[in-house]
Amino acid sequence: MWSQILPGLRIKIFLTVLTGVIYPLVITGICQVVFPHRANGSLITSKGQVIGSELLGQNFTKPEYFQPRASSAGSGFDATSSGGSNLGPTSAKLIYGTTKTDDKKNEVVDFDGINLRIVHYCVDNDIPYESSQPLDSFKDGKGNLDDVKLIKAFNDPKSPLLFQAKAPIPADAVTGSASGLDPHISPANAQIQAARIAKARGATAEQVKQIIVRTTESPDLGFLGEPRVNVLRANLALDQQFPLTR
């Protein structure tokens, strides 16, 4: 019996050590020597502190920064809940958005929707638009657009709010990625945001566009994918070249 069991046991131990210990150590060592930056997570540092990764998107909402794509990963850019909205192109929820009642019985945004994203993108970046109702009628007491009111207006079955941009908007500016963690935006999206950022930082749009050019990544191997701008790297470059005075 042992003459049959021992050879199998030896093979199992040998393959366990080979594939579970030796192989991982060899591959890890090669990666640390050949491309250590990528092997360690493509981390980005600033002033000695890790501020993120080239591979994972982060949310930026302030006007002085490039703003990323929409994210449905958890509450937004949650790496532990990576995923898209899973809503089809004919989904009313995807287009018009939805609201819900929170624990405090307040009506809040459940899903913003493409129409609401278009509104904010136009307003934030001074893109001309046409609206069936004045946007001022959807502002709160502080003068900010009330997203709940806008979503309810888009979903009004009798007289829905009609809103249309009068200039082309890049698709990535108002749609999310499949992972919800896309760290990139298109150069066209970044170019549209340049004027807003320049105004917030006291720079010129041309200076901001130069940063876009410097942080634009080419397609992989020259033909895989599209040119893209890494949002975190571009924003880091903004802080370095045009630091904000607090």
Word description of this protein:
With 246 residues, the chain is α+β, with helices and mostly antiparallel strands. It has eight helices and nine strands. The strands form four sheets. It has a three-stranded antiparallel beta sheet. Strands 1-2 form a two-stranded antiparallel sheet. A two-stranded antiparallel ribbon has the order 3-4. A hairpin with a 2-residue loop joins strand 1 and strand 2 (49-53). The chain is extended, with a radius of gyration of 24 Å.
In short:
The chain has 8 helices and 9 strands. The protein is α+β, with helices and mostly antiparallel strands.
Q: What descriptors fit this protein?
A:
alpha+beta, 246 residues, 3-stranded antiparallel sheet, two-stranded antiparallel sheet
Query: How is the largest sheet built, in terms of strand order?
Result: 7-9-8
What is the overall number of helices? 8
Largest sheet: 3 strands, antiparallel
Give, in order, the helices and strands.
HHEEHEEHEHEEHHEEH
- Domain tally: 3
The number of E-state strands comes to: 9
Question: What is the mean pLDDT?
Answer: 93
Shape: extended
Structural class: alpha+beta
Radius of gyration, whole Å: 24 Å
Quaternary state of this entry equals: single chain
Identify low-pLDDT runs. none
Q: What portion of the residues fall into strands of 2 or more residues?
A: 5-15%
Helix content: 25-40%
Straight-line N-to-C gap: 79 Å
Write the layout of secondary structure elements.
Blueprint: H1 2-34, H2 36-39, E1 43-46, E2 49-53, H3 92-96, E3 98-101, E4 107-111, H4 114-124, E5 129-131, H5 147-154, E6 163-165, E7 184-185, H6 187-201, H7 205-215, E8 216-217, E9 228-230, H8 231-241
Antiparallel strand pairs: 1-2, 3-4, 5-6, 7-9, 8-9
Helix pairs in contact: 6-7, 7-8
